[in-house]
Structure formats: structure tokens, C-alpha cells
Amino acid sequence: MAKTILGIGLDAISYGMVLFIISIGLSIMMGLMRVVNLAHGAFAMIGGYLASYALRSIGLSYPVAIIVAVLGTIVIAMPFEILLYRRIYRKSDALAQILLTIGITFLIIGLANFIFGPTSKPIPLPASLSGPYDLGFKVIPANRLFVMACGVCTALLLWLLVDRTEFGIRLRAAVDNGDMAEALGIKTQIIFSVTFALAVGLAAFGGVVGAELLPIEPYYALRYMVTFLVVVSVGGSGSILGALAASMILGLVDTTGKYLAPEYGEFFFYLLVIGIVFVFPNGLLGRSH
Amino acid sequence: MTELLQLKAITKSFGGLRVSDDISFNLRGGDRVALIGPNGAGKTTLVNIISGDLTPSSGTIFLNGEDVTHLSIPGRVGAGLVRTFQVTRLFSSLTAAQNVAIAVMQKRGLTKQLFSNPVNHPDVRREWEGILGLLGIAHLSELRVSNLAYGQQRLLDLAIGLALEPKVLLLDEPAAGVPSDESPKIIEAINRLPSHIAVLMIEHDMDLVFRFAQRVLVLANGRLIFEGTPAEVTGNPEVRRAYLGKYEDARRAS
Amino acid sequence: MTDRLSIGVGRSAAPAISQDILALVLIPLIGAIGFVLFPDDLAFLTRLISLTLLVLSLDLVTGYCGIDTIGHSAIFGVSAYVAGNACLAGLTDPVALLIVGAVSGAAAGLASGALVARFSGLPQLVLSIAIGQLTAALANKLSSLTGGSDGLSGIEPGRVFGVFAFDLYGRTGYIFSVVVLTIVFVILRRLVNSPFGLLCRAIKDDSLRARMIGARIYPRLVIMYGFSGVVAGIGGAIMAINTGVVGLDSVSFEQSAEALVMLVVGGAGTLWGGLFGSLVFQLFQHYVSAANPFHWLIMLGLLLIAIVLFAPRGLAPLVGSLAQRTVRLAWRRS
């Protein structure tokens, strides 16, 4: 019994961490640029594909493959930012944003299949991360620990970035009042582009480290399209703590639900989402815009 | 004549900041009242309280003898309290005629109807044609809002307000942002408003105040500091002090 | 250029009526063309019609009320399951099954609307998605009612009006569906051009201003959701009785998203756009996707991007103006 609880708990936290790493970029993007980006999962998927290719076809090491995946995804995503996303920043026409980003998702899914084929692509872990890890009092899968560590590091680094750096200050100013920030000489378009790159890079990172839990295959982008959006909405767009809290809670409910009552599928996950959105329409830690 | 609108001791605080302080006044049918005051005096806040966009921290509002202090906006509109905005808000995908017609139908409870032919119903049509004609924009009835000049949009905004058969009409800077070649039309329209309704207008343009108002309310720092005719207002020292502030005192001292 | 599809206000009532006549003529005409061109594919065309009803129901809430939802198929699917179960339980009269679908659709629509219309913006969108997914999860779980992942099958409707039996080729089913689509479309046109419909459009344009003219927004939107549910429910019933099966795809997020895409491709807010978009989308999908589903996705993705950037009001207005210009040119030549 204790083993099951620990097992579920570990899986839940790891899943939550993966959700967090991928979703936090979307949260910041939605908080800053007010874009409902349904293609976010597609960029995570691209990261996964690049890492898989780097590891299996080129033979790079795991850390290098991660860097390739993150940078490669940013390079691939920037044209989308320049040509498409810029036209829908801060526009209140949500329908246009939804449809444009759905279109981008479909495009990426189609291209992924065209290039890599329909089967799922594994991301082989290095030996140090594949086996069990001895904590002294317990032995747990190393991969789970790695994912959790990644999540915590991501949260800390982001917090430092947003709270302690020059960029972070400008970012927060632009989120709070974009027009005012412009008037003060803060070049919001540059901040938007950098934030977009950050969001996409984080998504790619999450796609790679989370590949055990969220396998990389062409329909990944559609399968998890809703999940990341929901995490951001529940946590509150623009809030790091909110995204963390939402990821953990939703990860826990989803994993526990699937263990205890698998026939219900994602019933409990969405029931909780409905409950939270009803009571906190702007998310647990969000503000109304 | 009966009091249409009565404000009694209206106060509104945001945290520690008192933006409306113990304001009381009455409006009767036929009144033409201008609400003036320096920036930040709380004029728009007061209008928001009267229209229902804000609830007062204390005090009461009576419309036609009925306590409307906690009545919803649709409720107040139904009771005859109508306002226009400083920034024009219109139904952008509808034509000018449809904008007015929808207000007419809403007022008459016709918008519950599901299958009739709405806007061309003879009664409805007579109504919106009449209002558009009164304001001099009948020739624009088929145009989409996006094809109207800004001044024409302001007039349409006013037309919608009239379609709701107001007893009390609150105008928030009706001439604001209107180019000078179009503002005479606005002034003319205001002068043609039905004589039985009470009109309260926020304005900065003193010319307009003089041409329109028989009474002026002066607000400063959230308090009603003066109530009188336009002529009396300009001579009043307290009003001058409110607008010019310490400058006046400094001048006098030197 | 006047928008041919807008309501005539100052003009006489003729244009509105002529559009109804257009619908009464055009839809059966297209139906007849389909019957002649694709005699072996009538099952597909009937399914196309049922999804068109879903798209029209979505147009009511999205195109006419401005509600953003990607969970609308849940209403369609629930009604399909209810109608299917009713038929399996012994109620085989097709018209009665349509009524069952309409009523369950109305109930599901009102319930969804009560939740979704409470909010706007992102919370509204996420809520609509969550409700849809919840319904899908329930449909999977309640396999005694829905057949779970295998779906409900063996739905065999009785004779229409006791006379016309549903044949193997799907002819009766097809004609039945075309007639239902025509009637529903004409009724919907009356609805959206009514005072109620006009107020909904005003709410979509500026809900604050609508409050300022004394309209109570929330009840209006919920009622429109009810009407939308009726249409979706009829669509679900048609699908159930014609294909004989109801699967989990009928409540899926994918189908909700597809319906939204079809609506926007045609053009939201005119009903004609939904009709056109649904028709064109599904025909293309049928042929291209069968060849290679991923090429279809690439094409669709590019199409969506192009529409958002260059034709935000959808393709139907473009086709409409093209048709107008052609007619005018032909008129001038003669």
C-alpha cells in the first residue's frame, strides 16, 4: 500500500513537473502577449523530435541533444513569430488566435509525419538516468528524480530571471501596462520576441525530458493541446507560482484518478478544472485583464 | 413639478480615498444641468454611481420616487435612467438604423420575439426614423457604424439613448473628440432633446455649458461646492479657487 | 459594397424573404445534385448533413453571440446517444427520434450554456473545452449506455411516416436528411433575423452597450444555447439513425474543433457560411484525407492560416461577391 502511494506520488509529481516546464512558457506568453496559443504543444513536440534525431541518428550525448533540441526549436519557431504571431498579439479577437494557432498545429503535425513518419520516437536516456536511484531510505527511478530536479531548477531560474534581472523588470512592466512601457522607451516588440523564444525553448526542454510520460509522435501536438492551455488557465496566466501550483494539483488529480479509477479516464481532471475555473475564472493566482 | 432624480448624501470611497463626498442634488423634468469641475473632481464617478456602473458607499438615489440605489443597470434603464459614454460605444456590425431599432425593441420588450420580421415593423420603423430624423442623421440609416464619421457616431450614440425613452439622460462629454466642423450638429441635437426629460451633462467646454445649461453643478475634490446659474458660477470665488488652486491664493498674497 | 447577406432594414422585407426562398430552392437542389453524382456514397453525404447541422448550431452561439467554444460536439454526441438508445429501446419512428434528439439537445444546450455563458474570454473557452472533455470521459465510462469505445450499434429506425423504409443504399435516409436540413435552415434564418437574433448580434458586438440599453445578457445567451442545442440534437439524431452507430468521436474535442474550423472556413455569423464551409470542408476532407491524412492536415493548416490572415470573414463572402460580380457581368453582356 505504501509502495503504491509513493509510486503514484512520484509519478504525479514528475507528470506535474513536465506539465510545469512545458506550460510555464505558455503562461508567460499568454500573460504578456495575450495570445491563446494552441500550438504550444507542437513546439514541445518539435523539441522531442530534434532530441530523438540527435540522439539516435547523429549519436550526440544527452546534454548536447537537449541543447540542440532547445536551440533548434527556437530557430524553427522564430519565423512563425515574425510572420504570424506578431499579427495577433494583444488583439482581443480570440477566435482569430484560436484558429491561427490550430492551423499552425495542424501544419506542424503534418510536417512531422512527413519528415519522421507516424511512429512514436523514443528519446533514449543515458545510463545514469535510466536505472534506479538510491536515495538511501528509498530507491526510485532516476528518471523521475531527474524530471523533478529539472522542474525545480526551471522554476528557480525563471523566478530569478523575472524578479532579479533587467529583462525581468521590463517584462513585468510590459505585462502590467504595455502602452505605458512603450512610452517609457521599453521596446515591447523585442521583449515579445525574446519571451516567445523563451517560451518555445522551455516547451522544447519539457518535451525532451518529459518524453517518457508524453511520448513523441505526430499527434502529440493535438493530444496535449488542451492540457497545457488548461494548466495555464487554472494557474493564472503570467504567474510562475500559479503554473507550478496548477501543474502539481492537476498532475496529482490526473495520475491518482488514472490509477484508482482508470475507466473514468480524465473525468476527474476536467471536473477539477471546471470547479477551479468557476471559482477562480482568472486562475488560482491570476489577475483579470 | 415632481423631482425626477434625487441624490441624497452620496458618498463613494475607494479604500481610504473619498472620491465622492456627501453629494446631494435634485433634477426635475425639463432641467438642463451641466456638471463641471477640474480634472479629478469625480464627475465621471458621480455619473457612474447614478447610472449604476458603480455602487455608492453610502447615500441613496431616487428615480421618480423609487429607490434605485441598488438596482441593476438594466433595471435603471427600464425605469428611465439612460446614459451615454465619453467613448462612443455602438454595435459595430449593425447599421445605424438597426442600432436605434434594437434599443426601441428592447424598450418595448419586443426582443423576446423569435420569428417576426423585426426592424421593418411599422411602429418600430416610425420610431427609429423619427429619432434619426430629429438628430439630423436619417440619411445615414443604412450605413454600417464603421462607415460613419466620429461626430455622426456620437449622434447615433445619442439616438440610442433617446430610443430608450429616458426620463433622465446623463451625457458624459457628448462633444468630446468631435472635430470642430461637426460639433454644431451635436449642440443642435442637444438643444432638440425632448423638453420633458431632465438632462445632466458633464462638460469641459464652457461655451457649450453657457448655451445649454440653466443650472450648473460644480464638483471639486468629490464635493459639490456650488449650484447655480451659469452666470453666477463664473463670478464665484470658491469655484475660481477650485479651478486655479493655490495660484489664486499666491497671487493675492503677493 | 453592400453586404448581400445582411438584413435589409430601410429596404423592404423582400431581400429577407428572397433568401428564405433561395434556401428552400438551393438546399434541395444541392441535395439532388449530390444524389445524382454520388449514388454510392449517400451514407457519407448523410453524415455530412448531420455534421452541417452541428456547424449551424455552433454558428448560433459563436457567429451570432460571440461565444468561443471548442466543446460543442458534446451536445451533438449526447443527443446522438440518447436518440440511439431510444431507438434500441423500441421507439423507432424517425420523426419521433428527431424530437428526442431535439429535446435532449435542448437540455444539454441549456446546461452547457448555463455554465459557459457565465464567463467570457479565456475562462469561457477553457470551461467549454473542459465540459466537452468531461462529457467524453463520461461517455467512455458509461459503456452500458454508450457502448464505451466500441460505441452504440444496431440502431435501426422504422419507416418514415410509416411508409418509407430506410433502405440499404441510404436513399430514404438521405432524402429525409436533406428535407430536415432545409426546414431547419429556413427556421434558423427566421430566428437570426428576429428581434431576438438581432439582440444577440448586438450582445456579440458590445455586451456592455447591450446592458446599457437594458438587456440582460446571461439569460439571452443561455436561451440561444438552448436553440443551438436543439439544432445540434437534431443533427445527432440524424447521424444516429442513418449510420446506425454512435461512437466516442461524436463527443470528441477533435470533432468540436473540426466544427469550429468548418464554420470559420465558410464564415461565421451568416448561416450560409456555416453551410458552405461544412460542405466544402467535408468534401475535400473525404477525398484528400482518404489519400493521406497528414497531407490533409498540412493543407488544412495552411488554409486556416491563410483565412485568418487574408479572409477573416471566411470564404463564403468571397464566393458571394464573386458570384455577384459574375451575375452583374453576365447581365451587362446580355
Blueprint of the fold:
The complex is a heterotrimer of chains A (289), B (254) and C (334).
Chain A: H1 2-33, H2 40-58, H3 62-83, H4 94-116, H5 127-130, E1 132-134, E2 139-141, H6 142-164, H7 166-176, H8 178-183, H9 188-209, H10 220-223, H11 225-235, H12 240-260, H13 267-279
Antiparallel strand pairs in A: 1-2
Chain B: E1 3-14, E2 17-28, E3 32-36, H1 43-51, E4 58-63, E5 66-67, H2 73-79, E6 81-83, H3 96-107, H4 122-134, H5 150-163, E7 168-172, H6 183-191, E8 198-202, H7 206-212, E9 215-220, E10 223-228, H8 230-235, H9 237-244, H10 246-253
Parallel strand pairs in B: 3-8, 3-9, 6-7, 7-8
Antiparallel strand pairs in B: 1-2, 1-4, 4-5, 9-10
Helix pairs in contact in B: 3-4, 3-5, 4-5
Chain C: H1 14-37, H2 42-63, H3 73-88, H4 94-116, H5 121-141, H6 143-146, H7 171-192, H8 195-205, H9 207-212, H10 217-243, H11 253-266, H12 272-291, H13 293-310, H14 315-333
Helix pairs in contact in C: 1-7, 2-7, 2-10, 2-11, 2-12, 3-4, 3-5, 3-10, 4-10, 7-10, 11-12, 12-13
Short description:
The complex is a heterotrimer of chains A (289), B (254) and C (334). Chain A is mostly helical and 289 residues long. In chain A, 73% of the residues lie in helices and 2% in strands.
Attribute tags:
heterotrimer; A: 289 residues; mainly alpha; two-stranded antiparallel sheet; 2 strands; 73% helix; 2% strand; B: 254 residues; alpha/beta; 6-stranded mixed β-sheet; 10 strands; globular
Structural features, described:
The complex is a heterotrimer of chains A (289), B (254) and C (334). By secondary structure, chain A is mainly α. Chain A has a domain at 13-126 and 136-220. Helices cover 73% and strands 2% of the residues of chain A. Chain A is built from 13 helices and two strands; from the N terminus they run αααααββαααααααα. A two-stranded antiparallel ribbon of chain A has the order 1-2. The N and C termini of chain A lie far apart (46 Å). Chain B has 254 residues and is an alpha/beta fold. Helices cover 37% and strands 24% of the residues of chain B. Chain B is built from ten helices and ten strands. Chain B has a six-stranded mixed β-sheet, with helices on both faces. In chain B, helix 3 packs across helix 4 (122-134), helix 3 (96-107) packs parallel to helix 5 (150-163) and helix 4 (122-134) packs across helix 5 (150-163). The longest helix of chain B is centred in the middle third of the chain and has 14 residues, at 150-163. By secondary structure, chain C is mainly α. Chain C has one domain (14-250). In chain C, 74% of the residues lie in helices and 0% in strands. Chain C is built from 14 helices and no strands. Chain C has helices spanning 14-37, 42-63, 73-88, 94-116, 121-141, 143-146, 171-192, 195-205, 207-212, 217-243, 253-266, 272-291, 293-310, 315-333. In chain C, helix 2 (42-63) packs across helix 11 (253-266). Chain C starts with 13 loop residues before the first helix and ends with a helix. The model of chain C is unreliable at 1-14 (pLDDT under 50).
